[in-house]
Known about the structure:
Layout: H1 9-22, E1 27-28, H2 36-40, H3 45-58, E2 62-63, H4 75-88, H5 117-126, H6 138-158, H7 166-174, H8 185-197, H9 202-211, H10 215-230, E3 239-241, E4 245-247, H11 267-274, H12 282-290, E5 301-308, E6 317-322, H13 339-352, E7 356-362, H14 368-378, E8 383-387, E9 393-397, E10 407-409, H15 417-431, H16 445-467, E11 475-482
Parallel strand pairs: 1-2, 6-7, 6-8
Antiparallel strand pairs: 3-4, 5-11, 7-11, 8-9, 9-10
Amino acid sequence: MGKAEGKSMLYLEARCLAIIRGAGVQGVQNGGIDCTPISAALPGGQQSVMAENLIAMLWDLECATGNDTPWSGSTVRGVAHLLPWMITGTDFIHSGFGATTVEDNMFGGSGFNIENLDEEIAVQRDFRIDCGLTSVTEEAVVEVRTRAATVMQKLCEALDFPPYSDEQIEKVIYAHDSNDIERDLGDNLKMSEEIKRRRLSIVDVIRACVGIGETEMAESLLDLLKQRIAGDYLQTAAVFDRFLNCMSAINDPNDYTGPGTGYRIGKQRWEEIKAIRSARRYADVKREQQRVSVKEDAKKMTLIDGQKAIKGTQPGEVVIGLSPAFGRTINTTLSGLYVGEALYEILAGIEEEGGTARIVRVENAADLGFIGLSAARLSGSGIGIGLQAKGTTILHQKDLPPLDNLELFPMAMLVGRDMYRRIGRNAAVYAQGGQPRTIPTVWDQQILKKRARAEPMVVVLQHMEEECIRTDKWCTEVNVRFQ
C-alpha cells in the first residue's frame, strides 16, 4: 500500500481487499502467505491475518489461507499458526503443498516442505481435515518419477536441448534434492535461453510429446491448457478433478457464516503480553547499525563521496553501485557481516580475475534492480554490481530490463565473505566477455529459521535506505580506503 499513513496492518490489508473486490477480481493471495513473518513480528499480527482471511471470505473472494512462508523457526509457533484454520474448518490448510525440498525451495521457503509430508498426512487424519494429500507406496512414487524423467529425457532430445544421460536419469528418479543430481546448471540456463530464443510454448511441448509417442502425456497437457484458457480455476475455491471437472462456489455454494465470539483480552493484560524483553523497536535497530563492528582479520572502510559519476570507457571495467545507506546509516548486512568486508571481497574478486573496478553510490533509488542497472550503464564493459547495505547483491548488464539480470543473490543472510569474492570474480569474467559458472546458494532447515527472523529486519533496513534517498541526485563517484 506504499506509505502506511499510521494505519494498522489490518486496515491496509482490508483496503487492498476492498480495491480487489471492487475491481471484480475473483481471488486474492493475501497476508497469510508471503510476508507473514512481518505480521508475526508484530503484537497481534496473526490475529490480523485471521481477520483478513475472514474479510476475504465475507466478500466471497478466493482466499489463500495457506502456510507457504516459514513465518517462524519455532516448531510450537508453526503448529499454532495452523490451529485456527483447522479448528474453524477452512476448505484448505494450504494454497498448495510444495512438493519441494527445503534445499531447493528458492522461491522463499515454505512452512511445510516435502520433508514434512508424513507429518502433514498424520495431521489431516488427526483433525479430520483435507490437506489434499494421499498416502501412496514407494513403488508408485518410483513409477511416476521414472515416467516423468524418461519423458523429459526424450523431450530434451526431440527439442534439441542439452541431453540427460541414462546415468543422470537414474539419479533423478531416486534423488531427494538437486544435490543428488549430476546436472550442470549451465545446461539448464541453455534450455531457458533456447525457450526464449525460439519462443517455445506449451503447444510445442504437446506436439513434441506426440512426436515421441507419449500421446497420453500430450493429452494430459492439452487438458491442462484447455482449463487455463477456460479460466474456471479462477472461480472461488476451485478444485479440479484431473483437470477435467471443476468444483467451485458456483456449483457448490459456501454457507460458512464465520466464527463466533469468545474471550477478549483486556487493555491492561494486552499491554503485559506485548511487553516482551526480545521486542526491538526501529530506533533500536538504527542505534545498532551505527555501531561499526570490524573483526580482527578485517579492515576498516572509509567511503568518500565525490563528483557526479560519468560513464566509463575501459572495456574490462566493473562498476559497483552502492545503495544510499551503505556505510552511512547501515553498517552490518543481514548475515552479520560488516559492509566494508563485503565490498572488500568483491573488489578482491574483481582484481583476481584481472578486471578493474570503480565504485559509485546510487543516490536516488533503494531498489536493487535499479541500483545494479545504474551501475551497469555507467560501466565501460556494461557490467555492474548492485550492492544494498543489507547485503543483497545483483550482477547486471546495461541492456537488460531492471527486473532481469545475470545473477541475483536475494537471500542476504546467506551471503558471506567467500560468496562476495566469487561475485566479484564472476563480474570480472562477464566484463571480459566470458561466461562464468553461476554461483549456487546453500539452503537448509537452519537457514529457514534465519529467514523468518530476517524478513521483518528487511523491512526496517529498507526503510533506513529510503530515508537516505536523494531525489536531486543520480550517481556519485565514491573513493574507498581500507585501513
